[in-house]
Write a structure and sequence with these properties.
The protein is an alpha+beta fold. Helices cover about 35% and strands about 15% of the residues. α5 crosses α8 and α10 crosses α11.
C-alpha cells in the first residue's frame, strides 16, 4: 500500500513502529529527495567503486519491512547506515526454484516463491543454494547483477545503495530492439512457424545445456530432459495458472496445429536461427547473463506465434513439452541436489 505524508511523521513511525499491529513502513527512492547533504557525502565516495554509477538511492524501513525475493539487472553496492538487516541471497543458477514472474507481468524479475523467515534451518535438500547474511552499520554488501535477494529489516534501518547497470543489459536491449529475437521467414502460417521453432529451440537449448551442463540451472527435475528445463519453467511455473489469470490470458492451453515432421525449409531456418543466437548474443553476454536473459528471450520467441502469449504457451505445451493430452503444470522439484539450502521456500 502506497502512503503519502510528512517526512518527520514517517521517520517517527519508522523508529517507533506503525500504529497498526503487523504492519511495517518502507521507503525506497532517490537519496536527493530526502537530503542534499547526504547526497553530497555519498556522491563523494562513488569514485571508490569505479565509474558509471547512478545516483545513490535511499532505503528506510521499520522493523519487519521486507523486500521479497527478486533480482536486479544492475550491480549494487549496498551500505548500512543504521540498524540491522538480513539478506537471503542466491546465485543466478538458482532461478528455476523461484518460479520468476514473466516479463509481461507487473512483478517481472520478482519471485512467485518466497522464504519463510520464521525458520532458520537448512534441512531441505531440494531448495535453492542460498546464504543468509546479516548486515549491521557500517557494513557494506557487494551484490552483483542477477543475484536473487530477499531483504528483511530486523530493526529500524537506513541504507544507501549505489548501482550501475550491467553492460550485458545494454547489449541485450540493443540486440532485441534491432533485429529482434528471430528473423521471421516471411509469410508462414502459425503451424509452419511452429515447425521451425520445433527445430530452433532444441538446437539452441541443447547447445546451452552442453555449455552450462555443470550449472545447477540444468539440474534433473525428474524424468525431464535437462535441456528442456528453461522452457518447462517458463511455461508451467512462470506462466502458472494463477499468473495467466492475472494477465487476462486463457486459463487452459488451446489446441495447436502441430506439424509432426518439419520440412526442409523449417529445418534450415531453425538451425540458422540457433547458430545466429549463439554467435551474436551468447558470445557477447557471457556465461552468467546468457542464462539470466534466457527467459525473456524465450518469452519473445513464443510471442512470435501471435495471439498474445496464449498461442505460444499452447504450442510449447502441445507440440513440444507434453503432447496434446496434457494439462501438466509442474514436474515437481529437482530430483538431485547438493549443498546447504534454505528450507522454507513457498
Amino acid at each position: 500500500q502506497r502512503l503519502k505524508g510528512e517526512a518527520k511523521e514517517f521517520f517517527g513511525d519508522v523508529t517507533t513502529g506503525p500504529e497498526v499491529a503487523g504492519r511495517s513502513l518502507r521507503y525506497g527512492g532517490k537519496l536527493r529527495k530526502f537530503s542534499d547533504k547526504l547526497l553530497a557525502e555519498a556522491s563523494a565516495y562513488r569514485g571508490a567503486v569505479g565509474s558509471g554509477w547512478d545516483e545513490p538511492g535511499l532505503w528506510v524501513g521499520s522493523q519487519g519491512s521486507v523486500s521479497t525475493s527478486h533480482f536486479d539487472l544492475f550491480d549494487n553496492f549496498y551500505c548500512m547506515i543504521r540498524g540491522r538487516k538480513s539478506f537471503v541471497i542466491s546465485p543466478p543458477s538458482e532461478m528455476p526454484w523461484y518460479h520468476m514472474f514473466p516479463g509481461t507481468h507487473p512483478h517481472a524479475r520478482q519471485a512467485q516463491r518466497h522464504f519463510n523467515l520464521s525458520s532458520t534451518t537448512f534441512a531441505n535438500p531440494n531448495g535453492p543454494l542460498s546464504a543468509v547474511l546479516y548486515l549491521n552499520s557500517p557494513d557494506a554488501l557487494w551484490l552483483p547483477a542477477g543475484w536473487m535477494h530477499h531483504v528483511t529489516a530486523l530493526e529500524p534501518s537506513v541504507s544507501i545503495s549505489v548501482t550501475r547497470n550491467a553492460d550485458a543489459l545494454d547489449m541485450f536491449n540493443t540486440w532485441m530492439k534491432g533485429s529482434g529475437p528471430l528473423e521471421l521467414p516471411g509469410k508462414w502460417t502459425a503451424s509452419e512457424l511452429g515447425a521451425g521453432l520445433g527445430v530452433f529451440l532444441p538446437q539452441l537449448l541443447q547447445s546451452l545445456w552442453e555449455k552450462h551442463r555443470s550449472s545447477r540451472y540444468f539440474l534433473d527435475w525428474g524424468g525431464l530432459q535437462p535441456w528442456l528445463l528453461p522452457l518447462d519453467v517458463l511455461v508451467y511455473r512462470s506462466y502458472s495458472l494463477s499468473v495467466r489469470h492475472e494477465l487476462g490470458l486463457q486459463g487452459s492451453f488451446q489446441p495447436f496445429p502441430c506439424k509432426p515432421v518439419p520440412d526442409e525449409k523449417a529445418v534450415g531456418w531453425g538451425k540458422a536461427m540457433a547458430e545466429r543466437y549463439v554467435a551474436q548474443v551468447g558470445s557477447q553476454l557471457g556465461s552468467k547473463f546468457e542464462l539470466i536473459f534466457l527467459q525473456p528471450f524465450l518469452e519473445s520467441v513464443l510471442g512470435t506465434l501471435g495471439g498474445g502469449m496464449t498461442r505460444g504457451l499452447s504450442w510449447a505445451n502441445f507440440c513440444f513439452l507434453r503432447g496434446p493430452n496434457s494439462e501438466h503444470q509442474s514436474q515437481g522439484e529437482p530430483a538431485t541436489s547438493t549443498g546447504k539450502r534454505r528450507n522454507e521456500v513457498e
